[in-house]
């Protein structure tokens, strides 16, 4: 294993001792890593990785120490402050520290908090963006978050705050009015409450909803439902997080763009899904 990518362009970034690179590992499929992420894995002395990082990705850093720092709702997890200060400690020991986070480190991933702590402790950093599950995970399910005939806006929200409750600072009525498509991260636990808030704000009970779990991995599952039924359908399908929930007519495009099903030999269910009033039910 070499220290840099083969045939890399001149000026490919070198990972210097004492630096921390905060890197997005993408939504799951190792093939969705960026080349900068792969370059970082090959050079790192230490990889501090999250729960949602696909284990196969760590195989690209066989010479590095692997430190698990996962945070999962409802399960024993590392304390965020401890993670941040551990990164400082490792960097001050002269290590090349790769902080590997699922998706993109700055999209509901606490990457901004960790970067801020590092800068406050005079640790030099590099940010390597990754593909966020709210875009890439939905794309793997055949759902474009924007479509010219459907929406000119999309809003990304989190389903829980630091306390684990539904965020009290979110104005669901304003979000409902202002965004044609809503993508919800970490919303499974409170989906009944969230759906109720959107219905109270005037969204139609029949509005299409798609729930994607284990996005981009071999265990990916998709349930197509409606806003009024999504909580019951999630329970009936026994879905478990991590999940991305998409609310809006863009989810109808899965009926024509389920490319994984087509690769397996299935025909599109509807080549013009926008003419239909509600999605078909599937799991």
Automatic annotation (TrEMBL):
Enzyme class, broadest EC rank: transferase
Pfam families given in the database record: TP_methylase
Location of the region described as Disordered in the Swiss-Prot/TrEMBL record: 264-283
Compositionally biased region (Basic and acidic residues): 272-283
Keyword Nuclease among record annotations: no
Pathway stated in the Swiss-Prot or TrEMBL entry: Porphyrin-containing compound metabolism; siroheme biosynthesis; precorrin-2 from uroporphyrinogen III: step 1/1; Cofactor biosynthesis; adenosylcobalamin biosynthesis; precorrin-2 from uroporphyrinogen III: step 1/1
Residue ranges of every copy of the Tetrapyrrole methylase domain listed in the record: 20-228
InterPro entries reported for this sequence: 4pyrrol_Mease, 4pyrrol_Methylase_sf, 4pyrrole_Mease_sub1, 4pyrrole_Mease_sub2, CobA/CysG_C, Siro_Cobalamin_biosynth, Uropor_MeTrfase_CS
Assigned EC number: 2.1.1.107
Key words of the record: Cobalamin biosynthesis, Methyltransferase, Porphyrin biosynthesis, S-adenosyl-L-methionine, Transferase
Source species of the chain: Palleronia salina
Entry similarity comment: Belongs to the precorrin methyltransferase family.
Record's keyword annotation contains Transcription regulation: no
PANTHER family reported in the protein's UniProt record: S-ADENOSYL-L-METHIONINE-DEPENDENT UROPORPHYRINOGEN III METHYLTRANSFERASE, CHLOROPLASTIC (PTHR45790:SF3), SIROHEME SYNTHASE-RELATED (PTHR45790)
A biological-process GO annotation: cobalamin biosynthetic process
Stated name of the protein: uroporphyrinogen-III C-methyltransferase
Superkingdom of origin: Bacteria
PROSITE patterns per record: SUMT_2
GO molecular-function terms, A-Z: uroporphyrin-III C-methyltransferase activity
